[in-house]
Amino acid sequence: MYANTSSKVRKVTVPDLRARKSPSRSIAMVTAYDFTMARLLDEAGVDVLLVGDSLGMIVQGLDNTIPVTLDEMCYHGRAVARAAVHAHVVGDMPFMSYQVSSSQAVESAGKLLKEGAVESVKLEGGQEIAEHIFRIVRAGIPVMAHIGLTPQSVHAFGGFKVQGRGEDAAERVLADARAVEQAGAYAVVLEAVPPDLAARITSEVGIPTIGIGAGPSCDGQVLVCSDLLGMVRGHVPKFAKRYAELGDLVVEAARAYVDEVRSHAFPGAEHCYKPNTQTEPVVELRH
Ligand code: KIV
Question: How many domains does the chain have?
Answer without folding.
Answer: 1
